[in-house]
Amino acid sequence: MLGRLIPREERFYDLFVDSARNGLEAARALNQLMTDYRDVETRSLQLQSLEHRGDEISHEIGSRLATTFVTPFDRDDIHALNSALDDVVDTIEKTVDTFLLYRIEKPTPEALQLSSIIVQQCEALVVAVGKLRSFKDLKTDWVEIHRLEGEGDRVSREAIAGLFSGSMDAIEIIKWKGVYELLEAACDHCEDVADVIEQIVAKHA
């Protein structure tokens, strides 16, 4: 009864949308780099800025969670969603930084394909997070995110297997294996967000 008398803090929804949009911007920046591979250092700085922005949003959500009496949904779910969205941007930033640190000469078709999948996942996440206020019509979005994760997993497995099927230099194999694993991790983190959303909706069904 008390929870009905005290207004819920609705700002969480806006912050989650901001976080999801920041993730989409990071995913698009990664995809642009894979499409037009130049100025890697500049792109890396751009991703660092987006990662810092993601941290700011995450910290604001955490601060509000610590001071808000009535939250729009379970505190554990708010924390889980906040963490999962932050992981997406962190991993994308780490991927671009790895291209710079490893001095990758040019991306592979598989890397471009994986970056495109991540963009599609992040687009679906923005739509899904935007629907959280109503907890309605979200199934299509998380199903699509799961489907894309499966596609990303397949592309990553085939790419890593391909590293060992030719005459690529051992150091290059190590570099690209690390890159593919990071790209796959970004896909996985997008799916983690979808899992949390599915869990939240199930509790409010």
Write the layout of secondary structure elements.
Elements: H1 2-5, H2 11-35, H3 40-67, H4 75-101, H5 109-130, H6 139-163, H7 170-203
Describe this structure in words.
The protein has 205 residues and is mostly helical. The chain has helices spanning 2-5, 11-35, 40-67, 75-101, 109-130, 139-163, 170-203. It has a single domain, classed as Methane Monooxygenase Hydroxylase, Chain G, domain 1, CATH 1.20.58.220. The model is unreliable at 1-7 (pLDDT under 50).
Highlighted features:
205 residues; mainly alpha; Methane Monooxygenase Hydroxylase, Chain G, domain 1; 7 helices; globular; disordered N terminus
Mean pLDDT score: 91
In CATH, the topology is named: Methane Monooxygenase Hydroxylase, Chain G, domain 1
Q: Helix/strand/pairing class, anyone? A: mainly alpha
Instruction: Work out the radius of gyration.
Output: 18 Å
Biggest sheet character: none
Count of separate structural domains: 1
Low-confidence stretches: 1-7
**CATH architectural grouping:** Up-down Bundle
How many beta strands in the DSSP annotation? 0
**How far from one another are the termini?**
20 Å
> Which range best describes the helical content: under 10%, 10-25%, 25-40%, 40-55%, 55-70% or over 70%?
over 70%
| Topology order in helix (H) and strand (E) letters | HHHHHHH
The name of the CATH superfamily reads Phosphate transport system protein phou homolog 2, domain 2
